[in-house]
């Protein structure tokens, strides 16, 4: 029920922030995801919510309620996803956005499946070495903070296009809850207040007057009214994507870029196009996975990992040395391919068929030594960024939508567009700004992901849909967390279909992360016992305990309806009816 919002609205966890704080002021650093989840991220009550008809799970209870409201007005899951996406731009400015981009995975009850890629693209004036200091040859932090950090936003093009093709309600109706939240305001919760307190980027830019009145971050309990954003949303609601990519909003964006030394032009905005793609369809022990193809690496890397694991039947039990070792070795192999071979398919030849084939997985599995860690070969390259948000939607007919969207870092580049009221992304850091050098998440990537004008930067986003052996939706899930998106989403799926956990347990279960380089197995408390840790070290694994890995929101079909679970380590809400 909608009134469940009240039960989830005030989250206790540090949502925090982040990456941005660490990036402030110059030197590039890699960031532990625990930082963005609030340092020592702790599990908090994330009560699974049951609803008979429709369900939305996201990082903002108000945004989930916006989606549920639209379904109650007769909208389908795509209408609700678009309503939730625009509402997140208002209530979760940390990552919800219209100045960023994302990927939406759609499975309609009539059997149609589709994904829409609305990833940002490099502006036409971008150059391969634009973030390298010519004097020192070192990377600057301009791909992370400030006006040069932004790719051309795709969110508005993607959401309006998805609605036009698969939605059932007019854009203005679907956007009404977001416009109301912006125009009338909403009460800042503890998660947003904490996120602003931890942020060090926004106070450098125009958004400070709104989010830091009198120099202090908005406190929990304050009503936040975003009149400029409301006006922008009203313009989009009236004019569609043209209301963002041309006209006053585009003028405000380009003027801000010109004042601050950014390079996005009217021509960039006019040329932006979201792309419809075919989902990667793979199988795992009789289940079907629908995942995201490039320009995200998410689907290929998940598929490759799960194809490798499928070679081992049954998998050892959760938390055992054997299971942890196999999972690590599978992730290692999939990430080696990911980091070296994947990029925007419009610019590089991606060996999708090979990387997702069972034969290839079999050969990789055969190379796993069950008693020793493999060493990741030295890479020719570097990394991946954050902060992102995932939401899952299911409706009464069985249509489902899995969407991940991002500004990249928390509050993106920190640049807020005056007169239009939104933050710009810092997605340019998802390129290999200097192939071979780690990005802010320590990912080492190759030439396939080098900067080229008009190219989409490689993503890790992995909005996923799992079908059961009868082809009915079982799970709708995805995550935020840069490369940890891939490992966390894979683990939630494995926990449900391999370890037979409920969705709530699957989301709560301690997580592991390995991305090939750095060659370290990161793990949350409780992932395994001390004895297992000793065994893993003896096998040659390097272990690093971390405060929290990624941020997932999921929905599972159960008898008579849907269960929604929001990330137990963070804020948000599952809202159904
Ligand atoms: N910016 C995070 C990702 O796309 O993977």
Which terms would index this structure?
binds glycine; Glutamine Phosphoribosylpyrophosphate, subunit 1, domain 1; disordered N terminus; 2 domains; 577 residues; alpha+beta
Describe this structure in words.
The protein has 577 residues and is an alpha+beta fold. The chain has two domains: 216 residues, 4-Layer Sandwich (Glutamine Phosphoribosylpyrophosphate, subunit 1, domain 1), CATH 3.60.20.40; 261 residues, no CATH class. Helices cover 33% and strands 16% of the residues. Strands 1-20-19-15-14-9-8 form a seven-stranded antiparallel beta sheet. The longest helix is centred in the middle third of the chain and has 21 residues. The chain is globular. Bound molecules: glycine. Glycine binds next to loops.
């Amino acid at each position: 029920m909608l009134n469940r919002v009240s039960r989830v609205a005030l989250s206790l966890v540090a949502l925090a922030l982040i990456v941005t704080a660490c990036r402030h002021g110059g030197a590039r650093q890699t960031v532990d995801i625990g930082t963005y989840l609030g340092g020592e991220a702790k599990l908090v009550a994330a009560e699974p919510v049951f609803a008979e008809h429709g369900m939305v799970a996201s990082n903002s209870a108000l945004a989930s309620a916006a989606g549920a409201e639209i379904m109650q007005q007769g909208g389908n899951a795509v209408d609700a996803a678009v309503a939730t996406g625009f509402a997140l731009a208002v209530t979760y400015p940390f990552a919800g956005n219209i100045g960023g981009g994302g990927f939406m995975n759609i499975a309609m009850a009539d059997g149609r499946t589709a994904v829409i890629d609305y990833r940002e693209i490099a502006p036409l004036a971008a150059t391969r070495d634009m973030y390298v200091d010519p004097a020192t040859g070192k990377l600057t932090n301009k791909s992370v903070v400030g006006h040069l950090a932004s790719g051309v936003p795709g969110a508005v093009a993607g959401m309006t296009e998805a609605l036009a093709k698969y939605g059932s309600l007019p854009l203005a109706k679907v956007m009404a809850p977001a416009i109301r939240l912006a125009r009338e305001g909403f009460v800042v919760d503890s998660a947003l207040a904490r996120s602003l307190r931890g942020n060090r980027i926004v106070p450098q830019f125009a958004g400070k007057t709104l989010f830091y009145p009198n120099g202090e971050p908005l406190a929990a309990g304050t009503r936040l009214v975003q009149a400029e954003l409301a006006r922008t949303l009203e313009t989009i609601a009236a004019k569609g994507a043209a209301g963002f990519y041309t006209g006053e909003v585009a003028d405000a964006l380009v003027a801000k870029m010109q004042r601050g030394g950014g390079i996005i032009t009217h021509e960039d905005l006019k040329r932006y196009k979201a792309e419809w793609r075919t989902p990667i369809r793979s199988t795992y022990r009789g289940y079907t996975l629908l995942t995201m193809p490039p320009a995200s690496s998410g689907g290929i890397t998940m598929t490759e990992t799960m194809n490798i694991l499928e070679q081992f039947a049954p998998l050892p039990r959760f938390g055992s040395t054997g299971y942890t070792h196999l999972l690590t070795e599978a992730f290692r192999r999939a990430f080696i391919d990911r980091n070296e071979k994947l990029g925007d398919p419009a610019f590089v030849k991606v060996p999708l068929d090979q990387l997702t084939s069972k034969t290839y997985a079999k050969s990789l599995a055969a190379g796993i030594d069950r008693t020793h860690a493999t060493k990741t070969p030295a890479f020719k390259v570097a990394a991946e960024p954050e902060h992102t948000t995932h939401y899952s939607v299911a409706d009464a007919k069985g249509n489902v939508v899995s969407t991940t969207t991002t500004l990249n870092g928390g509050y993106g580049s920190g640049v807020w567009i005056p007169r239009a009221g939104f933050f710009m992304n810092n997605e340019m850091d998802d390129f290999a700004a200097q192939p071979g050098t780690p990005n802010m998440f320590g990912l080492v990537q190759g030439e396939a992901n080098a900067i080229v004008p008009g190219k989409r930067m490689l993503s890790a986003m992995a909005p996923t849909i799992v079908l059961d052996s009868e082809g009915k939706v079982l799970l709708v899930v995805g995550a935020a967390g840069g490369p940890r998106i891939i490992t966390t989403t894979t683990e939630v799926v494995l926990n449900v279909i391999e370890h037979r956990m409920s969705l709530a347990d699957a989301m709560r279960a301690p997580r592991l992360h390995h991305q090939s380089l750095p060659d370290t197995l990161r793990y949350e408390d409780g992932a395994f016992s001390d004895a297992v840790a000793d065994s893993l070290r003896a096998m040659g694994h390097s272990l690093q305990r971390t405060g929290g890995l990624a941020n997932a929101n999921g929905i599972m079909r159960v008898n008579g309806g849907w269960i929604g679970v929001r990330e137990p380590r963070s804020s948000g809400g599952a809202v159904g009816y």
